[in-house]
Amino acid sequence: MKKFNFLPILLLSILFLILESCGPVVFSSRLGTPPPPWFYPNRVENVRYMYFPDYQFYYDLSLRNYIYLDNGAWITVNALPARFKGYDLKRSRKIRINDYYGDNIRKYHSETTTKRKNLNSRRSY
Description:
Blueprint: H1 2-20, E1 49-52, E2 57-60, E3 65-70, E4 73-77, E5 95-97, H2 105-123
Antiparallel strand pairs: 1-2, 1-5, 2-3, 3-4
């Protein structure tokens, strides 16, 4: 009788451990469209924008488009232009923007750039 009670508990524990290690979970407003292949978080996150500082462009995970500055104008496209094609985004440095979920990433970019410049100027003393 004790073996019978122990067996279901053991099976449920094993099932829970298997399901827990299945991989990343990403919350998105679009159903059925997976995130790009370079975005694989190790935990559940609620992120809207990813920033690639080496190339200076953003990726909007909810709208699935890229936003970059080109000759002083912000451009929004579904696929990166040819000048970005040779980059491996899986290995590139990326920053998850955890504190901004609005639609105006341009305003966020100008505010954070100003803050970074002020911090860097203070550190140079």
